[in-house]
Specification:
Layout: E1 20-24, E2 27-30, E3 35-38, H1 41-44, H2 53-65, H3 77-89, E4 96-100, H4 103-120, E5 128-133, H5 141-144, H6 150-153, E6 165-167, H7 180-198, E7 203-208, H8 225-235, E8 239-243, E9 267-270, E10 282-286, H9 288-296, H10 310-325, H11 328-349, E11 353-359, E12 362-367, H12 383-393, E13 396-397, E14 399-403, E15 409-414, H13 422-443
The structure holds 4'-deoxy-4'-aminopyridoxal-5'-phosphate (PMP).
4'-deoxy-4'-aminopyridoxal-5'-phosphate is lined by residues 43, 102-104, 107, 136-139, 209, 213-214, 243, 245-246, 271.
């Protein structure tokens, strides 16, 4: 047995963590035999659950045939097949696909594709990517630029140019008299104001998560938001990039998060659920109108050694088959409602949990010291870290973050694999109840018994 006793590995998170031993379905086990229920699907990526036989066998078969062939030299069948499969599931016309190895890489590729499209179409002054605060688009230098998270971006700012940001539509925090739909328009109109402020000719694209993920814990914009955003982008000739890294491949009860509305992005970014954690994989999809000029210019000036990796793409093909075979998108929609109802019941017991929201199995909530005033716990309390740890001790994995940018708060997400059953949701909720009981004791928060 090998542990990192020498501390050779370095990480974002605090070590030590237990060494994982095995996993199956919605569970993982560590080396000591302790079992964890995966209420965060890893990094909200293991959509089809752990240990799926069909995917493992498909990857093995591909490895036996060919594990690697460079895309400069060869096409490979899994990449071609996955591109076909994706095109048939994405909004009509989004049928030009480009594969990479992860979410940040896919965001980088989307930004570079947009920029090259602008140059290829004689719009070389366009380069700014407007993002939102808070938001998360990845951790590489380019993906950080439109990411709204000061803590992650500040250190790198001399190298990674911060892009213009508009507030994310955090409607749950608003206290004004406007209806939800009016507030949706209000937040969308901030995009137009920002474009005009920056100078429309300098703006290349607007990037957003259709339903917020890591930074905003399942933030769902009002319906009015999407058509207005599309209208504004069209009026100023700006590309709309949907970062569906977390929301894609069924997570929210539709294939894409954006499919809950009829809005149409210019570029879709996918990763996480696409391979469900079985192999590193990401993708961008765009229409011929975007890709055509770039190809005509001599080709996309981009490429990674592992782009279109045959084993990763074989995993992707098998994952999509399993999503269909097991009816996981419908299950996400149904179980998501069960989960939200259960969380609502928990919040009656623990009134410091509020603003429960989300779609499908991307479900989130806020934690407030004073829910009436929406007053957060103090930042120094690092309550999000404590919540994760208290759950982990009890064998439950959840996702929790301190929201930065605008009014602060701690939030958490419960995002189990899309195979989750009612009984497993019951187990998650029971353990979460125990966790919140301990959390309330530690932070001196009221509980209704
Ligand atoms: N975009 C979004 C919306 C994400 O949620 C993430 C990952 N949390 C990324 C990009 C970056 O993906 P990766 O961690 O695979 O680089």
């Amino acid at each position: 047995m090998s542990t990192d006793e020498a501390g050779r590995l370095f990480h974002f998170t605090r070590l030590p963590r237990p060494v994982v031993d095995r996993a199956g379905g919605v569970y993982l086990w560590d080396k000591s035999g302790k079992r964890y229920i995966d209420g965060s699907s890893g990094a909200v990526n293991v959509n089809i659950g752990h240990g799926n036989r069909a995917v493992i066998d498909a990857m093995k078969r591909q490895m036996d045939r060919v594990s690697f062939a460079y895309t400069i030299h060869f096409q490979n069948e899994p990449a071609n097949e996955l591109a076909d499969q994706l095109a048939s599931r994405l909004p009509r016309g989004m049928d030009r696909i480009y594969f990479v190895s992860g979410g940040s890489e896919a965001v980088e590729a989307a930004i570079k594709l947009a920029r090259q499209w602008a140059v290829a179409t004689a719009q070389p002054t366009r380069w700014k990517i407007i993002g939102r605060m808070p938001s998360y688009h990845g951790i590489t230098i380019g993906a950080l630029e439109p990411t709204g998270d000061d803590v992650l971006t500040r250190v790198f700012e001399p190298m990674s140019r911060p892009m213009p940001l508009i507030p994310a539509p955090t409607v749950h925090r608003d206290h004004d008299d406007l209806s939800l739909e009016e507030r949706g328009l209000h937040y969308a109109d901030m995009l137009e104001a920002k474009i005009l402020q920056e100078g429309a000719d300098s703006v290349l694209a607007f990037i957003m998560e259709p339903i917020g993920g890591a930074a905003t814990a399942a933030l769902v914009p009002p319906d009015s938001y999407f058509p207005r955003i599309r209208e504004i982008c069209d009026r100023h000739g700006i590309l709309l990039i949907h970062d569906e890294v977390m929301t894609g491949v069924g997570r929210t009860g539709k294939f894409l998060g954006g499919d809950h509305w009829t809005c149409r992005p210019d570029i879709v970014v996918l990763s996480k659920g696409l391979s469900s954690g079985y192999a590193p994989l990401g993708a961008i999809a765009a229409s011929e109108a975007i890709v055509g000029p770039v190809v005509a210019m001599g080709g996309f000036l981009h490429g990674h050694t592992y782009g279109g990796n045959p084993v990763s793409c074989a995993a992707g093909v098998a994952v999509l088959q399993e999503v269909d075979r097991l009816g996981l998108i419908a299950n996400a929609a149904t179980m998501g409602e069960v989960l939200k109802d259960e969380l609502a019941a928990l919040s009656r017991r623990f009134p410091f949990v509020g603003d429960i929201r989300g779609k499908g199995l991307l479900v989130g909530a806020e934690i407030y010291a004073d829910p009436e005033a929406r007053r957060p716990l103090p930042r120094e309390a690092v309550a999000n870290v404590r919540l994760i740890d208290l759950a982990f001790e009890r064998g439950l994995i959840i996702y929790s973050r301190r929201v930065r940018g605008g009014p602060e708060s701690d939030n958490f997400m419960v995002c189990p694999p899309l195979i989750v059953t009612r009984a497993e949701i019951g187990e998650i909720i029971a353990t979460l109840g125990d966790t919140l009981e301990a959390f309330a004791r530690e932070f001196n928060l009221p509980v209704n018994h």
